[in-house]
Every structure is written in C-alpha cells, then in structure tokens.
Amino acid sequence: MNGFLLVSVLFAAPMAESEDASGHPGTQLVFRSNTEIVAVDLRLTLAGEPIEPRWRQEVMSLAEHLDRNGDGALSRGEAGFLPGAASVREWLGGQISPSRPATNPIDRFDLDQDGLLQPGEVLASYRSQGVSHVDLVWRKNLVVEAANAALISILDHDGDGRVNRADLKQAWQSCSPLDQNGDGVLEFQELFPGIHGTRTASYQRVGDDDSTVAPPSVGVILGARYAGSDAARVVSFELDPKPQAGRPKKTILAPRRSLVIQCRTAPGVLPTEFEKFERTARERFQVLDTDRDQVVTSTEADLPHKFDMPALLRAADLDGDERLSAEELECWLKVQRAIAESRVLVEMTANQKSLFHALDENDDLRLSQRELRSAVARLQDIGAVSGEFLEISRIADQWSVTMSRGRVTRLPGPHASSPRWIQAMDTNQDGDISADEFRGPPDLFNQLDRDGDGLLSPVEAK
Predict the structure, then answer these.
(1) Among 97, 123, 133, 201, which residue is least crowded by beta carbons within 10 Å?
(2) 417-446 pLDDT, tens per residue?
(3) Helices 51-66 and 119-128 meet at what angle, rounded to 10?
C-alpha cells in the first residue's frame, strides 16, 4: 500500500485556490509514496489560450443556445435539452451519442429555487457530475510483480535470483535474443509473451456520483491547492502544438526519489472523430429528407439505419415540433463540437515499482538499445542500485500522465521534432539510428558516432 489520498470536487481546509497564469482555477494532481507527496499543477493551453476559460465560455454558449426566449436563463423545457453528463464524456472519447439526461437538471441544480437554471447553475450541474475542462482517468498496472520476476530472470546470468551491476551492463545482450521481429527494440510482449494486459480496463473518474474516492496513492484536485505538500511542480503543455514542435515530455523526480512522474501529450481522436460524425449526420439527413424540404420528421428519422437519427432529433429539436430542420442540425453539431474541443483527457497510469517502466525512460512501452545499455546509470540515478545489486524495493513508484484531445490514438515517437530525414532513417522509432538503419556509407556513420556506441543519437545525427 503506497498511501492514500481523497479525491473530491468539493473542497475543505487546508486548501487554497490554485490559479493558472490567467487567473483561472487550475488542475492539480497529487501523488503520494510512503515517504513524500508531490503536487503537480497542470497548466493546459489550446492555441495558446488556457483551456479552462474556454470550457466555461462554451458551456455559457450552450446555455445561450438553449435559451429560446432570450431571458438569460433556462426554463424547465429549455433545461431538458441540456446534454447529459454521460454524453459529454462520450464525446471526448470519440463516442458521439447525443442524449438528454434521465431527469431534468432543473430538479437537482436550481440552487436558488427560482424555477430557472442560471448559466452558473449549468456549470455547477456538470461539475457536480465530474464534468469540467478535464476528464480524469486512473488506471493501475496489474502485472508488475510478474513482469519484474520475468525480467530479473532474463538479466540474472548466474541464476542466483539477484541482478548485479555486471548483469545490468549486459542488459542489451541478454534481452536482444528476444527481439522476435529484429527491429532493435523490445516490445513488452516480446519480453513477456506469457503476460497479457499491462493495465486494467477499470477506472474511476473524479466526481462520479457513485464514488468520490480515488484508488490508493493518487489524488486529483480541481480548482484548489493541496497545502500539505511542498511547492507544486508546474507543468505547462500546449495541447495542439505545431508539427515541428513535436510532443513534449516532462519528467518529475521527487526530492527523495520515491516517485517518478512522466507527463506528456499525445494525439487524440479529436477533431477527426467529429468530422466523421458530422459528415455521416449530414449524409443521413439528406437521405431521410425524402421530400427535400430541409426537414426530417420523427417518422422519417425512425427508418432503419445504423446512425441513430431519432436520438439526434430528440437532442437537437429545440422547438419541440418533432421535426429536425437543417438549421437545427447545424446548430447542434456546432455546439457539440465546441463543448468537446474545450475539454482534455488526462490519463494517469500507476506502474508502481516496475523495472520495465524504470528502464523505459521515454515511456513508449518499449526498451531500446540505448535504454538497456544505460540501465546501470538509469537505475542508479533513481536510487534502485544499492552497492552491487539491484533492489526492486528501491525503485521509485512510476507514474505516467498523458494529456490528449480525446482518446489517445497513438503514442508519439521519441523525437517527433527531429528533421524528417532523421525520422525516416529511424525505422523502429526508438530515438536512435543504428548502423543497419543508416542509409549512408559506413565511414560517415563511424564519423558521426562520436561516442563509438554503435548508435547515432539525435544530437550526433544533426
């Protein structure tokens, strides 16, 4: 057990407001080991602007869109068209299914009991259901012990059940015979063919109605600061960087080396999934509009098709005439996309005292030649080598934090910002160019390989 932390979207002392550079409440992740606590303040921007104010603005725009009589608040009928919390979450995951909540939000969130839902109450209604500018997901690696035992067996030359410095210096030679496809990197399944599934499929979202307590050793605080830790580490990420900027990664090592937190961005399904959904919705609308009057009736919407037009009609039919006009469709698509694009998915994975992840310096779920060749230095740096031997118990708790615009589609390569010719040569995308990958004459390779390790690093290649 690595400690605990309470997660809630309602805050009590001792916590003070934590704001980003724009003055808006930030998001703080709190990690705890047996010996220390590390707080990480996330400062997330999109197109150079903080994402949290954008979320607020889009929710306000949603309320304005539904406010048919223009009185600045939502009546019971208007509030009934608010997308349910489950739908808003699904949009970020690339599952676009418009639906209304089971009960009218005004019954639960009309805080001043005036029979109307004010814009601030709309924001509060989503927040109380765990929906804000971030969607937080927690996962746990369930196979750490099995993988550690298997990797120690691979590295342990004399079979005494322990790994010493000499074993670690030969890590690449010990593991390379397992490189089944010969690409020069060791995938998890190549090293551990009998161990399947590095992470659980179950998780808890912060603020869900059924639970406000996170699994052990991690906490998430929205809009407040945990006062019990040292000064928070500030991590700033642009969620939609220019292609030449690559995908940045930042590593946080706790002062006592009991925690290693890898933070990075990765490509997500947005906006691609919305473009596909919008195209399908418009195509289906045209097919169902048999009389070409730019309106789809409830009868037409019920015609069999894999696209759920009845659900879309119920969500977007603001005037309640059981007809979906082309204008209503376009308004709804615009609102739906704006809401989804004002949010970010933050996935936190607890890899615990994993030897594999301790060696996987770039957190790409593969071990490269360079990572294995530098095993002694890497493990010594995080305090896992004591004297002559590797001590698993001294490995820092490994955390991976990935931020993306919707569900992650792929993990970025280790040097996505390198020149294209370097990326083209690095066929296994391990961050180095081997002699086999190099397309020039051998003499030039040897000239560029200044440290003589048989690999060209991005610095040497430039």
Answers:
(1) 201
(2) 555 666 666 666 666 777 776 777 777 777
(3) 120
